[in-house]
């Protein structure tokens, strides 16, 4: 794809490992360029630049504030520990920097509201780093779910995000430290599961959320494995049930199953596709058992969707497109993305509250 004449200039605030992936995405997206990086020390920032082979044109700063003070930075990507989000995100928005922030967006919805209110009052775009929402496969599945309604009414959603964390991770990673990322596995990888349930319900909030009594915490009280039941109950009697599971204690899984009244969608790599150039899912319509229940009347249809860019580059491209519209044409920030983040945070908060209450139901 041809590069735009005036790409959006991004600064990275914090040199977490995920920032390597997003820095690559910034360079792959046709309408953005990496302008600056900032870390807690100039030595760490220089090392990050060297390891990733950044050109000399990239500004290197020894603290976060210098990135926010740079007048040439249009927007920032912020992969900081969650406990630091509200301070630095609010500061970025006050300085007019558009904000692409890692998930979980905040420790709770109160903190997120402070960020979103500052973004809105300063006219800056907000988006969280849920990359899978930007993949063409997700767009295709959405068309089948909501536009053509091939699945009928969504009755059941099942979503997992798990990984077998190493002993070193379990001892030292910020995601198991209560002062850095107190939400643990629920905030880190559970964010995707909760987001997938909301996505499958077109961002309708549920009726009741209940953490299941399989919660595992580390010695510091941080959740490292949990499950939750999410229920939708409508006055007309229609209902949807969902189960999510997130864990640092078992083999990698990224399953998503959506079952409707007429069909089912299944995929096992919904967060990170098996490969960058394309992704697939299985679709089954009108499945029944044959006589004697010795088989099925249909086999799943495999649908493959090509992707011109990796999903993280598509995310950056969409973010930069919105920033360009605000910067050049005076458009208002797109409210869709902050609304998605806020509903996901609300659902996360409900699961966490249920855990804290001893797995009692939390009602919306």
TrEMBL record:
Q: Where is the Gfo/Idh/MocA-like oxidoreductase N-terminal domain?
A: 8-127
Where is the GFO/IDH/MocA-like oxidoreductase domain positioned along the sequence?
145-265
> By its UniProt entry, which InterPro entries does this protein fall under?
Gfo/Idh/MocA-like_OxRdtase_N (IPR000683), GFO_IDH_MocA-like_dom (IPR055170), NAD(P)-bd_dom_sf (IPR036291)
Q: Which GO terms describe its molecular function?
A: nucleotide binding
Q: Which family does it belong to?
A: Belongs to the Gfo/Idh/MocA family.
> Which PANTHER family is this protein grouped with?
NAD(P)-BINDING ROSSMANN-FOLD SUPERFAMILY PROTEIN, PTHR46368
Q: What is this protein called?
A: Uncharacterized oxidoreductase At4g09670-like
**Organism annotation:** Durio zibethinus
